[in-house]
Design a protein that fits this description.
Elements (H helix, E strand, L loop, with lengths): L12 E4 L7 E5 L4 E8 L2 E5 L11 H10 L3 E9 L1 E2 L2 E2 L1 H5 L6 H10 L3 E10 L2 E2 L5 H11 L7 E3 L2 E2 L2 H10 L8 E5 L9 E6 L3 E13 L2 E12 L5 E8 L3 H11 L42 E13 L2 E2 L2 E2 L3 E6 L21 H4 L10
Parallel strand pairs: 1-13, 8-10, 16-20
Antiparallel strand pairs: 2-11, 2-12, 3-4, 3-5, 5-8, 6-7, 8-9, 12-13, 14-15, 14-17, 15-16, 17-20, 18-19
GO molecular function: ligase activity
EC number: 6.5.1.1
Catalytic activity: ATP + (deoxyribonucleotide)n-3'-hydroxyl + 5'-phospho-(deoxyribonucleotide)m = (deoxyribonucleotide)n+m + AMP + diphosphate
């Protein structure tokens, strides 16, 4: 491979802001695997956000990209999987599997898509120093007539339309809006764009914690919500405490500690079969590897309020943020019913395959 921008490339990133800034290019924030695609004739590499190749995990995309992209180019985008009209991150993570036979089967049953939103090189020309608005124009020309499963991400300069996308696209599984300065050059691994994500709060049960890697202090609190059947389901964690607060939490939560955890609703977490019928902490995962997933069980008697952006099925998609303790709430009152349900939205419209597609 001999391209003006060679792999691996760590993609340009975004920093969080509260409001949609004016005077920029706006795009939906896709919930998938960030990927930079390098193609040089018959050679094609799909690189991850960290620079590691993803090519072997998405053979159907490698084939489609080789058929549809120009002979020599470097494209930044997102790998996603759509299911029942929404993006499905859980099905996407299933594709990172060591068995080639499993990958091939999933490529047929849950095929992925690639959504392009930036162009880093074309032919013999590097576009890293080219302003965004010129890169976008070149990308649109390049994608004229390209069909599924390769898509051009919708983009607009209308802040009002971007605000509409922010509200409507969440129902299709997207998780916010990205704002990009029009004259922005492409700078790998630099946070020069802006992301605006949904912010919500929920009251959750604190039923355990994990130690921090630095020592015997709290690293993260394990959170639960009661389902309709009255079972406490593990929904995620909250973290990002200061060093002093981590030590304080160990002392504060000591009266609730259950050792052994007999009678705890998640006591069976070490039994792999138990994870099939309930959401428990420490579920086996290809992502965790040899990571220590052990945790300290607490009597599920304390409630806290956390901030979160959106749900992935029955759990928080990202790490939640601790807001405050809620001594006025009973654990039994912390159920899924309190969570805001986004309005449903047809994902085919976001992909540009249906009516109501927003203009670029």
């Amino acid at each position: 491979m001999d391209l003006p921008v060679m792999p691996p490339v760590k993609p340009m990133l975004a920093k969080s802001v509260k409001k949609i800034p004016p005077g920029m290019q706006y795009e939906a924030k896709w919930d998938g695997f960030r990927a930079v695609v390098h193609r040089d004739g018959p050679e094609l590499v799909i690189g991850s956000r960290t620079g590691k190749p993803l090519t072997r995990y998405f053979p159907e995309l490698a084939e489609a990209l080789a058929e549809r992209l120009p002979e020599r180019c470097v494209v930044d985008g997102e790998i996603v999987i759509a299911h029942d009209g929404r993006l499905d991150f859980d099905r996407l993570t299933e594709r990172i599997h060591p068995a080639a036979s499993r990958v091939r089967m999933l490529a047929e049953t849950t095929p992925a898509r690639f959504v392009a939103f930036d162009l880093l090189a074309l032919g013999d020309e590097s576009l890293l120093d080219t302003p965004l608005h010129e890169r976008r124009a070149a990308l649109e020309r390049m994608f004229a007539g390209i069909g599924a499963p390769v898509h051009l991400a919708p983009a607009t300069r209308d802040a009002a339309l971007a605000a509409h996308w922010f509200e409507r696209y969440e129902g299709a599984g997207l998780d916010g809006v990205i704002a990009k300065p029009l004259d922005l050059p492409y700078r790998p691994d630099a946070r020069l764009m802006y992301k605006i994500k949904h912010e919500r709060t929920a009251d959750v049960v604190v039923a355990g914690y994990r130690f921090h890697k630095s020592g015997p202090v709290v690293g993260s609190l394990l959170l639960g919500l009661y389902d309709d059947g009255g079972t406490l389901q593990h929904v995620g964690v909250c973290a990002a405490f200061t060093a002093a607060r981590r030590a304080q939490l160990v002392e504060e939560l000591e009266p609730l500690r259950m050792d052994p955890p007999t009678g705890h609703p998640w006591a069976a977490w070490t039994d792999e079969a138990a994870h099939e019928g309930a959401r428990l902490p420490g579920a086996p995962s290809r992502w965790s590897g040899k990571k220590d997933l052990s945790w300290v069980a607490l009597r599920p008697e304390r409630v806290c309020e956390v901030g979160y952006d959106h749900m992935e099925g029955d759990r928080f998609r990202h790490t939640a943020q601790f807001k405050r303790w809620r001594p006025d709430r009973t654990p039994e009152s912390c159920g899924y019913a309190q969570l805001e349900e986004p309005v449903s939205y047809d994902l085919s419209e976001v992909f540009g395959q249906g009516p109501g597609v927003p203009p670029h």
